[in-house]
TrEMBL record:
A Pfam match: ROK
SUPFAM superfamilies documented for this protein: Actin-like ATPase domain
Protein name: Glucokinase
EC number(s) given by UniProt: 2.7.1.2
MF terms (GO), sorted A to Z: glucokinase activity
Xref: PROSITE patterns: ROK
InterPro entries found in the cross-reference section: ATPase_NBD, ROK, ROK_cs
Domain of life (superkingdom): Bacteria
Swiss-Prot/TrEMBL keywords: Transferase
Family recorded in the similarity comment: Belongs to the ROK (NagC/XylR) family.
Enzyme class: transferase
Chain segments annotated as coiled-coil in the UniProt record: none
Amino acid sequence: MGARTLTHGLHMQQIAIGIDLGGTQVRAALVDEQGRILARAAEPTDALAGPDRVLAQICGLTDGLLAASNPASVVGVGVSAPGPLDTVAGVASNIPTLSGFVDFPLKAELQKRFPFSVDLENDAIAAAIGEWQFGAGKGLDNLVYVTVSTGIGGGVVSDGRVVRGRKGMAAHVGHMSVVPNGELCPCGNRGCFEAYGSGTAFARRAQMRAMESSGTTIGSDGGAIDSRSVFAAARDGDRLANQLIDEEAEILGRGFTSLIHIFSPDIIVMGGGLSHEFDRLQPGIQAYITQWAMPAFKDVGVMLAALDQNSGLVGAAALAFLSGKVPAIDQL
């Protein structure tokens, strides 16, 4: 996707550059102070080529956007990347989806390449910031953001501040244990929330159950059994598909209830790939919370991420705005 040239007064306003570095795509955007994406560009991540190539992709996308748009004032660059990241030191500890990003000084290397200040954030925390500043959590002081996709990640805003913790690595919510000695998680532990509630776990459960069931249309056309095909079968009335979805909603409800008890948020914000089926999942999630949360917490609602796939991209840009304003630094 090429850069889209702006048509409305970009030269008169401050903008931030948001970068979302993922194992599949590198995305860049110019974002204004209201969280609006004014121009964007993306390309597939050259994930096996090593850090120099990936950083060249980031710079190439950014240069293209700036050349096409020619903004007068750039406050900084915010970068969202998968963890674990030591954002205090600016180091990518070990990004499993990107070759060579082991103890890699990502912030320092990016700072060498940009004339603007660079801020680095874990992708799920960046998404939480995006939803807090410009999305479903705008105006709230307390929220938990959970992305349910290939894995499960999270970010927390508490008392109007982003919870970062030691090394900036707080809110790895997918790796709280929900089943003793349970399924093996990609992190190496057993029984993690991610091992049961992620889109990957949901699809794996569907594959196993479909093989054991003769009365389901899941996989009957010979196609891949994934989250999308299960929800499609459910819409056609498939009993097993609807049962699997109800179980997924219960698993998510169990994890969300624990997070509600720990952080006491105003809302839980759900993003990620499975959130595209939010309308089907939300009643079951909310019903679990209503049944099992302590009385004082039963009214906490689960909401869909308002920025969809752009939560992290906009949140990364928000980092640059917040860092560039002295009164707002304390918010972070």
